[in-house]
Amino acid sequence: MKTLHKYLVGQVFIALLLTVAVFTAVLLVGNGLRDILLLLTVTHVSLMFLVRAILYLIPFVWVFALPMGMLTATLLVFGRFSADQELTAARASGVSLLSLITPVLLLSLLCCTLSAWFNVELGPRCRMAYRGMFLEISSSLMNGQLPEGRFIRNFPGYIFFVEKNDGGKLENVMIYRLQNETNVDMTIHATRGQMNPERASNQLALDLYDARIVNFTTRDVTNVFTHISSSPMLTMNFSMNAITNRAPPPRISDMTFLQLRQELHSLETMKLTISTNVAASPEAQMKFLQQRQQTLLESVRVEMHREIAFSFACFGFTLIGIPLGIRMHRRETNIGIAIALVLVVVYYAFIMLGESLSSHPAWHPHLILWLPNFLFQAIGAVLLWRANKGI
After folding, report:
1. Does 44 reside within a domain?
2. Rounded to whole angstroms, how far apart are CA atoms 153 and 243?
3. Where are the alpha helices (DSSP H) in the chain?
4. Are 381 and 322 in contact (CB under 8 A)?
5. Which of 67, 143, 320, 324 has CB atoms 3.0–4.6 Å from 313's, for a disulfide?
6. Is 94 domain-assigned?
7. Residues 102-151: pLDDT tens digits?
8. Among residues 72, 93, 89, which one has the least CA distance to residue 81?
9. Calpha distance 331→319 (Å, rounded)
10. Are 319 and 358 contained in the same domain?
11. Alpha-carbon torsion (139, 141, 147, 150), positive or negative
12. For residue 285, is it within any domain?
């Protein structure tokens, strides 16, 4: 019996590691590749910066990769276990299915504990650290570290290009001013420049020397007029509000469970006040404020319940994955992955439904988040009972 337990747990554990690695890679591409590629096109970052960004993203994607990997691992292992007639041999030796899978269920509970840590603490903190890294790049602009040899789009309405930057002393500066964030209506080329960040006023003063200015004026589709001028020295001021280096407060979806509890407590104890300068009656104002408060409270409750409910996904996926793998009676990996993806879509559909209804507190959407756990565990328990009976 111990040999069978060791064999099954070992097979599931190895398959779990492989499937989690595959899903982690896929989710990393989907979550971080766009941001990282955009960062590479607009600024210069080191290899260590990219490594840190990926490491911060890994715990966040493990929130989703671990349950998906557990489901896929059980489908593959028990599908092969059944197809190779090993399950039949175990039953012929007097070993029941329930006693056979007990260590695997314990492994799934261990994964639930690990998933809870990712959901309520590590994942949100790493997500905020990942976003904070991008603020570091914006902060470098305020310190005069405008990256050279790159097109910089951090300032709305402008594109910058600097051939050389030596501690804020610029050479061959090109500035493109955009009209409606698309069409270029003015270009400025300066042989030299100097960056002067002013933190007190949150402004960036850019002194340009030997500047050549080209203005484009469009009267219609076919007529474009240009006006060329030059200036020995030109000073341009830019607001740094769009790229301030102060970290913003975390969004509800990026809060840890303890932060969500604090937010919920502050909303519950918040005093509602009405204004005498508003045309609406005090009763109407109070009703509106109460509705708004309930909506905010429900948004926080939904996120809290999502973090806890999603932590039990590994157990529900294991309960339903074992009997489905036995019923498939197939060794093919693609079949197991296809079924796993279908089940994951069904599970996440309930999560998305609950989050989309967070603005309707009367419907108690935070309870919807628990439905996939109860559904998968109930169906899995019935299927396991039938498989144990040989039905």
Report:
1. yes
2. 11
3. 2-42, 47-83, 86-92, 97-117, 123-142, 257-268, 282-309, 313-328, 333-356, 365-368, 371-389
4. no
5. 67
6. yes
7. 999 999 999 999 999 999 999 899 888 887 776 666 555 555 456 666 66
8. 89
9. 19
10. yes
11. positive
12. no
